[in-house]
Amino acid sequence: xxxxxxxxRAQYGAxxxxxxxxxxxxxxxxxxxxxxxNPGDALGAVGTNMAAGTxxxxxxxxxxxxxxxxxxxxxxxxxxSHFTQVVWKATTELGxxxxxxxxxxxxxxxxHVCVYNPAGNIIGEAx
Length: 127
Fold this sequence. Notes:
CATH superfamily: CAP
Strand order of the largest sheet: 1-3-4-2
Domain SCP: 1-124
Largest sheet: 4 strands, mixed
Number of helices: 4
Number of domains: 1
Radius of gyration: 14 Å
Mean pLDDT: 91
Order of helices and strands: HEHEHHEE
Strand content: 15-25%
CATH class: Alpha Beta
Protein name: PR-1-like protein
Number of strands: 4
Structural class: alpha+beta
């Protein structure tokens, strides 16, 4: 997770993230819940990205899915997305985890959750 995030962040002039065991533990706890929805404030004042897929759905595929929102981003009219959270310049820490879930799709799925600190995607602070 970390290497992929930092690879994409470097392309946008954002500093490398540091891995956080605390954020990873929060991500694991949320992934284990198998709730495929934004956790809101349940994890605290952090940012989150989530992705789920059936079959072979590795961490690299999850991060690439986060980055796929890049094609719909416009600096002239910024909208916040998975992509903007990945490259948000003020974010300094990352923790991610995965769980196998039977309740997201009709088939077993791998559910990836990434937690970011500080949170990105703050209205009025587009970076």
